[in-house]
Write a structure and sequence with these properties.
Layout lengths: L5 H10 L3 E3 L11 E3 L1 H20 L4 E3 L9 H6 L1 H4 L1 E6 L6 E3 L28 E4 L3 E3 L9 E3 L5 H5 L2 H8 L5 E10 L14 E11 L4 H18 L7 E5 L11 E9 L2 E12 L1 H10 L5 E2 L5 E2 L2 E8 H12 E6 L2 E6 L10 E5 L5 H15 L4 E3 L5 H10 L4 E5 L1 H6 L1 E6 L5 E5 L3 H10 L8
Parallel strand pairs: 3-9, 19-20, 19-21
Antiparallel strand pairs: 1-2, 4-5, 4-6, 7-8, 9-10, 10-16, 11-12, 12-13, 13-16, 14-15, 17-18, 21-22, 22-23
The protein binds adenosine-5'-triphosphate (ATP).
């Protein structure tokens, strides 16, 4: 079994242009990354698959795109100004700052020169609360009245639009509002690549329900979201659902479960599903003076409860890479391959002329590429030996490669090579598009154990 470390993932991401450390030529900026070509493609696929399952395939959901900088009163009402904090300690020995509740994961007391297990005595200060919201100024005046925050979650943008959307949608709960957008947190325990970053793209959905149905919908959404990951090929053995204890839960939550993935750093939250009760709508009603409730035709009225599945593209991105990363020896050569679900794979197929100097092969390969690119992200590649081209496509997770060779010139067939099994079969050039269409719709299961 391949030992998948975060270092191997980071190195592949860099080597193949998925992700680069941000501002690298200036020495970088902690926990901030830039996405290269394949990273952008893969993020787009994750985003649209979430959108498809939340919006396109459902009758009870609408989309929203709210602003990043909201009236600061929103964050007072939501409890973030007072309570969105992590407990921090300073180490007088290491001169570094750590999260008091994550000390065991930190480097406190460690020096690079030390042997494993060796620690230095640390001299820690008392824990202080540190607010994770980034502050900024709105407008030209730099005084207290112009202080604003970059949103630390997209959810509040949904709650403050409840009235607009509920009235327009004319829906009786249960119904949901879904949004995808950037959130910002001044995280203090950076590291671990994209798992914990300061700027990330959240995909959140607030599902408004009658209060007495909240428990049922909470269970429903845990199950739905877990199934979504299984359908996208994450291995069942690497996923689990963990219910929070009462002490662990956020101030607003009356029930939270994490869908956890076994990352190289251990079991960690991939997605959270929370029963937020009527906390948010009630808080905004009290602070804004605008009643945020559902009013039925017959005058029936109540404040709905909210079930929230929330995840970032970044945590899915890392889970997919870790789950897919594999190393094996084939014909005495090492092969690194990303066994990604075809829907997640950045590029769906590669089109390769076997001999790039052969003009007939190139013409046929180019015209197949032209045909397929109208419908899918596919890649034409004529750079170097065929073996090297296959290995490059394996490393970016391309599920299939169509090769135009001598036989194509005789009988108009091509070879299709399968990334996972390495099986090759021949098909008529004219049926490649239909074959790919069909292949992309087949269920996919990871061959990794
Ligand atoms: P953690 O306990 O790991 O800090 P959290 O409980 O604070 O996470 P939530 O506030 O529930 O996270 O945010 C919802 C989702 O947003 C998380 O499940 C995760 O997928 C994502 N997320 C939160 N913080 C980050 C971050 N710093 N970087 C990347 N994704 C994040």
């Amino acid at each position: 079994m391949t030992d998948v470390t975060m270092d191997k993932i980071v190195s592949l991401c860099r080597r193949r242009g998925f992700v680069f450390p941000s501002s690298e030529i200036y020495g970088g900026l902690g926990s901030t990354y830039d996405y290269g070509h394949y990273g952008v493609l893969m993020k787009n696929h994750i985003r649209s698959l979430w959108f498809r399952s939340m919006i396109q395939e459902r009758d009870d959901m609408v989309a929203l795109d709210s602003a990043v900088i909201l009236n600061p009163a929103v964050w007072e009402a939501s409890g973030h100004v007072a309570g969105f904090t992590d407990p921090l300690v300073d180490c007088r020995t290491c001169k570094l700052r750590f999260r008091a509740d994550r000390l065991e994961d930190s480097q406190c007391g460690r020096r690079p020169s030390m042997r494993p297990g060796e620690f230095r005595e640390c001299d820690l200060t008392e824990a202080r609360q540190f607010n994770l919201m980034f502050q900024t100024q709105v407008g030209a005046l730099e005084d207290a009245s112009s202080v604003a925050f970059l949103r630390p979650e997209t959810a509040q943008g949904i709650f403050i639009n409840f009235k607009n959307v509920a009235q327009l949608a004319r829906r009786k709960p249960p119904f949901g509002i879904a949004q995808i957008g950037k959130s910002f947190r001044n995280e203090i325990t950076p590291g671990n690549f994209l798992f914990r970053v300061r700027e990330f793209e959240q995909m959140e959905m607030e599902y408004f329900v009658p209060p007495d149905e909240a428990e049922r919908w909470y269970e429903y959404w845990i199950e739905q979201r877990l199934q979504w990951y299984l359908d996208l090929g994450l291995r069942r053995s690497q996923l689990r659902v963990r219910e929070h204890s009462a002490e662990e839960r956020s101030h607003y939550s009356s029930g939270t479960s994490d869908i956890e993935y076994l990352y190289p750093i251990g079991w960690q939250e991939l997605e959270g599903v929370a029963n937020r009760g009527d906390y948010d709508l009630t808080q905004h009603t009290q602070h804004s003076g605008t009643k945020l409730e559902w009013v039925g035709e017959g005058g029936e009225r109540y404040t709905p409860y909210v079930i929230e599945p929330a995840v970032s593209i970044e945590r899915i991105f890392v889970a997919m890479l870790v789950d897919g990363y594999d190393e094996e020896v084939v014909a005495e050569r090492d092969r690194t391959v990303l066994r990604l679900h075809p829907e997640i794979a950045p590029v769906k197929a590669a089109i390769l002329p076997l001999i790039p100097r052969n003009a007939d092969m190139v013409t046929r390969a180019r015209s197949l590429h032209e045909e397929l690119r109208r419908r899918w992200l596919v890649e034409y590649d004529d750079g170097g030996q065929i073996g090297r081209r296959y290995r490059r496509q394996d490393e970016i997770g391309t599920p299939w490669a169509f090769t135009i060779d001598d036989q194509t010139l005789e009988d108009e067939t091509v070879t299709v090579r399968d990334r996972d099994s390495l099986a090759q079969e021949r098909l008529p050039l004219s049926s490649v598009a239909a074959w790919l269409d069909d292949a992309l719709q087949r269920p996919w299961e990871s061959p990794k154990r």
